[in-house]
Structure formats: structure tokens, C-alpha cells
Amino acid sequence: MKLLQSIFTGRPLIRSLGRRYFAANPEEYSRRNYANNLAEYNTVIGSITNQRRQYLLRDVYDDMMLDGVQPSRESFHSLILGCMKGARLQDVLFFRDEMKSMGLVPDVALYNFIISSCGRSKSSDLAVQILEEMKHYEVKPNGQTYMCLLNACAASGRLDRVYAIVRDMTAAGLGLNKFCYAGLIAAHLNKTPVTEDTTNKILEYVERSKEWSSVEASSGTAETVMSGVTEEELYNIVTAEYSHRRAGFLSRQLTVYHVAFHASAELKNVEMMKTLLDMLNKDGRSPDIFIMIQVIRCYCHSGDFDGAVQAFQNFAESMRSSVPVDMYVALLEGAMTGLTTKGMQVAQDTLLKMSSNGYFLNGKAGSDLLLAAAGEKTGGYTVANMIWDMMKAQNLIPSLPAVEAYLNGLKARDIPADDPRLTLVSHTYKNHLLRSGGPQRRP
């Protein structure tokens, strides 16, 4: 019985046996194998992370175990970093446990990645536990550790914990930088319920952040710099996914404003947004593209589609270069808020303008927009049809959820069963299911 228990609790063995088939011939084995040695596996891990296919990292690790390849500290560093970027907290914890079982204690950089992963999953309790684990293993936290913890608690709206961390940092002689103020603003935004004081507090922290010098030396450690992780990514700031974009898109000196403008959009508070624009102007600063996206979102979320269009046009006219497609996408997404008649007309006009100006949608943006447009219950379904046609013209296949929603929307309308569009979408949906092995097996 103990033998059977040991077999069925074996970490990757049973899963690997079912997947790999030991009876396969050498050619077949080689085709199924990810790599043959540690160096190759480390390369594969990096490649999978760069392709944003982090859901495969556990499978790669199982493959290593089956091949008898001993992971190095570098391997675990890449695995945990990849899972952090993919917001796969359970996999991060799995690799931490595997690492410790092999006698390798994570260093401070890896613990920072783990705490950051907790923040992405809004697991502030676990983030605090990870800090205690660091102390247990005598791994000394650094400034980034507390910043990761502060923003992890902010993501959960744990204002009490955020204040406690700020007090500890102040008592230790650590000054509050822009990421601290960003965390304080995020904590007020995410704290429920939202109160009348929320707006005042956010504006207050924007003002107080100016006491901190905008001329800064990067606080990034060698580990994060070499890993290609920006501080915005590490602390889960709202600009994280844009942090590798060109300077004109994102002005790094405006981090606190970025978080505040994002909060105004989430709170649907146009008055707050206009106040922030006035504050920015008094500081002698101009909005960057990220801020204008939040301005557009704020107008749309509050139902003022005319205000959103006017803001888009004014900013477009002030630009020396072409308008980035992100602004068009922001206006499209915002216009479809509530799927109102007015908003869908704005979305239709925006799509026509994009097409006439030679803009294209990428796979992700197109899929997200199609999924939103497919929810329209009345009207001519024009926006959804236009997005589908734009993607087909580029030979782009929307995601399975988007195709499924679009297909259901077509079926709900009075369309003949042999309609060419309905036939094509049905065929695309069936092919999606075949490739994915069915809805239950999507990663």
C-alpha cells in the first residue's frame, strides 16, 4: 500500500507517463521532448516566457524531471519569473516549493517576484506570509521587497496594511517615492466601499508626491534589470503592460498621475479627471498617451461619448506624429460601454476612421473588441461585423470566446441558415474547438 501511495503521490511521474509513452521510438521521443540538457531547457524556458505561453512551464519542468535533468538556481529563477509575468500564482508557489525541496533557498530577488505574484492575484494575506518566510530563512528584504508588499496590499484594498508599511518605511528612514504614492492611491481606489473622501485622498496624494524629487536614480536591482523586469511590472502599477513602450507613449516622471487618472476612469469621475488635468497643466506638464487613454475611458464610462470624441480629436490635432492605434482602441472599447445606441454609433464611426487612415487591429485587440461588440442585442450588429471583417482581411483568427460570442449573436438574429457569414463563423468556431481539444482544455 505504501508503494502504491508513493506512486500516486509522485509529482510529475504519472502525468508524464500518460503524456510521453515510454514505448515511443527514438524519433517520436525526440519530437515530443522539449530539450536534452540543462542549457537547452533554460533556453526553452526563456523562449516560452517571451512567447507569453507561461501555461507550458509546468510541462517543461515535468519534462526535465523525466529526463533526469537537475534544474539550477538559474532555471528556477526563469521559471518563477515567467510565471510571475503570466500571473500564474499557483505555479510560482509550486516552483518555490520544488526549489526548496532541492535545498535551494530563494534569494531576495526571487522572493520579490513571489510577493509581486501575490499582488497580481490580489492575495495580500499570502504576500505577508511570504515576507515572514523570508525572515525565517534569514533572507534580508530590500527596498523593493517592501514596495512589492505595499502594492500587493494596495491591490486588495488593504489600506490599513498599506499605512502600516508606509509607517515602517518612514521609521526606517526610507523616503516615499512615486511608487509608494502610486500604492496609496491604488489602495484608496480598491478599498470598498468607495466613500466621498476617496477622490479627495487621491488628489491629496498627487499633490504630496510632488514633495519627492522627480529627478531619481533607478532603484532597480541588478537582478530585475538583467531579467528585463521594469519597476512598473514588479510593483504591478497600472502602466506595467506599457512600461516597455517608447517615451512618448509613457512619461516615466508621471507615474503618480498615471495611477490617479486611471482611478478617475474607474470611478467614472469626470470632475476629478478635469482637476487632474488642471494640476498637470500647472506643473508645466502635458498629458502623455497613457493619460489621454484614461481621459477617453473616463468620459466613456460616465456616458459622455461626445466628450470622449472631442478629447480624442483635440489630442490627435496636437500630436506631431500619427495617432497610436491604442487611442483608437480605447475609444472603441469605451464607446461600447453599456452597448448604447449612441455609443455603438461612435464605435462604428471610429472603425470607419481607422480603416480610412490605414490602421489595423492586432489579434488580441481585435478579439477583445469583437467579444464586446458581440454582446449587442439590438441594432444591425454592424460594429461586430466590421471588426470581424477587418480581422479576416488581415488573416487574423479571433480568440475562441470572441468567435463563440459572435456566433451566438448571429444565431440570435433573423439570418438564413445558409448565410455565407454565418457559415464562415460556424466553420471557424468548429476549427477552434478541434485545435483546442474542446472548451474544457483551453489553457
Automatic annotation (TrEMBL):
Source domain of life: Eukaryota
Signal peptide (from-to): none
Keywords: Repeat
PPR repeats: 72-106, 107-141, 142-176
This protein's GO CC annotations: mitochondrion
PANTHER family: OS05G0145600 PROTEIN (PTHR47801:SF1)
Name recorded for this polypeptide: Pentatricopeptide repeat superfamily protein
Organism, as annotated: Erodium trifolium
Lineage, top ranks: Eukaryota, Viridiplantae, Streptophyta, Embryophyta, Tracheophyta
Chain's gene name: ppr
